[in-house]
Amino acid sequence: MRALIMLPFVLAACDQAMDTNAAAAANADAPARLSAVQQRVIDLSPQLRDGVLFRAIRDGGAECQGVAATAREADQDGRPVWSSRCTEGSAYMIAIGADGVAQVTKVSGDRVRG
């Protein structure tokens, strides 16, 4: 399963997003800068962030009944990424785009411990 989900409540909390493409083009050697939306998700308390990730998984149509564990993974293409395991055992990778769109991908195995 792969889905793109808009997180409007995260976007509503954001004044404006930074243009990560312009920053990357200005200095290709510099690490990608996160948008204000991405940084807000990172800065959330673990409980609130789990709620955002749960909502992204559910909005993608998954039968997740709750998030049992999450772990921050290495950023991919300038997007912060988390792995999440649902209470019934299914696992997902969630990447948050600069515009607040979450890309949810179902993964096999038990990537998230805890």
State mean pLDDT (0 to 100 scale): 79
Strand content: 25-35%
Question: How much is the radius of gyration in Å?
Answer: 14 Å
Determine the number of helices (DSSP H or I, runs of at least 4 residues): 4
Read across the widest sheet, the strand sequence of neighbours is 1-5-4-3-2
Low-confidence stretches: 8-30
Tell how many strands the DSSP assignment holds.
Answer: 5
Beginning-to-end CA distance, first to last residue:
23 Å
Can you give a write-up of this model?
The chain is built from 4 helices and 5 strands. It has 114 residues and is an alpha+beta fold. It has one domain. The protein has a 5-stranded antiparallel sheet with strand order 1-5-4-3-2. The longest helix has 14 residues, at 46-59.
List keywords for this structure.
114 residues, alpha+beta, 5 strands, 32% strand, globular
